[in-house]
Amino acid sequence: MREVWIYAESEGERLHPVVGELLGEGRRLAERLGGSLGAVLASPHGSLAEELALFADRVYVVQDPRPYTDEWQSQALIRLIEDRRPEILLFGGTRRGKSLAPRVAARLGTGLIADCTSLRIDEDGLLLAELPTFGGRLLTTIACPSHRPQMATLALGAFAPGPKGAGGEIIDCPWAIPGPGTMKVLGQEPLPVDSRPLRGAEIVIAGGRGLGSRANFALLEEVARLLGAAVGASRGAVDAGWMDPEGLIGQTGAIVRPRLYIACGISGATQHVVGMQRAEVIVAVNKDPKAPIFDLATYGIVGDCRQFLLELKGRLALPGAVDEKNEGQDD
Ligand SMILES: Cc1cc2nc3c(=O)[nH]c(=O)nc-3n(C[C@H](O)[C@H](O)[C@H](O)COP(=O)(O)OP(=O)(O)OC[C@H]3O[C@@H](n4cnc5c(N)ncnc54)[C@H](O)[C@@H]3O)c2cc1C
Description:
Strand order of the largest sheet: 7-11-6-1-4-5-12
CATH superfamily of the largest domain: HUPs
Radius of gyration: 22 Å
CATH class of the largest domain: Alpha Beta
CATH topology of the largest domain: Rossmann fold
Number of strands: 17
Number of domains: 2
CATH architecture of the largest domain: 3-Layer(aba) Sandwich
Low-confidence stretches: 321-331
Bound molecules: flavin-adenine dinucleotide
Largest sheet: 7 strands, parallel
Mean pLDDT: 89
Shape: elongated
């Protein structure tokens, strides 16, 4: 039976949100291959396996009390892969996925296709992975025909989560993974969590270079609070220092698929568009009527983005609107 595996990244006692996307895409590929879906959990929290078993046919659990390091996790994965020989292995394009996957691929002497935005199986059962290249000007398709497993990291937000399965089997792999190796974890501190994360947000309002100043970007952030929206940015705004790189949307940032995306002073370069084109409704505000962002906008407003934000703020700040939109917020 040919297996498609996903690496189930965990954050403390929770699965990383990307795991839902991996399970959804993994299931789709497994069905196309006529095979089954496996999930690998290498974590101190073996109890997460039950959650995974709702979606995967088999969950391989390497329970180990050590905090995460690439070293011991790659050893666990390699041992499992050599034992069970999966056909395909998928990782999320998270910091951890991007660090762990190449290490595993290099040790196994197989290929790794990074930051894929679309995957399919051809008539010979080969994985074909699509991703933007040459600065987003070309879409390229890459395969790994002669080595196994076929490995890929998935661009975050590019894939849809899937439905639950029939209930999977949990397989404990009680191996002693040698340690401590060359890395030693001295301490762990969680990063501050954004109260309105970009990924998974229903409304995203994003600013670009056309905003013109930090003060105007702050105005956009104020409107976002009133709207209950997450804030994003184009490379233009990030390079100007108005937004942290974590807020970047596009080829080298996050891929979002909100119900509503408002682009203020963003030209619509291909590298930005790949990160937001899946939004249900796109509202673009740009003073140039020929700006490429209007080609994909549901509603286009030709005008000054500062004026637009002031107008929107005024309307949202009407007493009734504030109460309704700010429901559940402290400020
Ligand atoms: C390899 C590579 C990867 C990249 N990855 C990304 C990525 O992940 N994300 C990303 O965003 N970019 C990325 N880029 C950069 C991308 O090519 C563009 O340069 C960038 O998106 C432009 O940002 P911008 O639209 O804010 O700025 P500009 O292109 O400068 O556009 C500003 C827009 O604002 C409009 N404007 C000006 N004043 C006003 C006003 N007062 N009111 C309304 N509109 C106004 C202008 O008409 C213009 O359309 C990448 C580039 C490369 C080469």
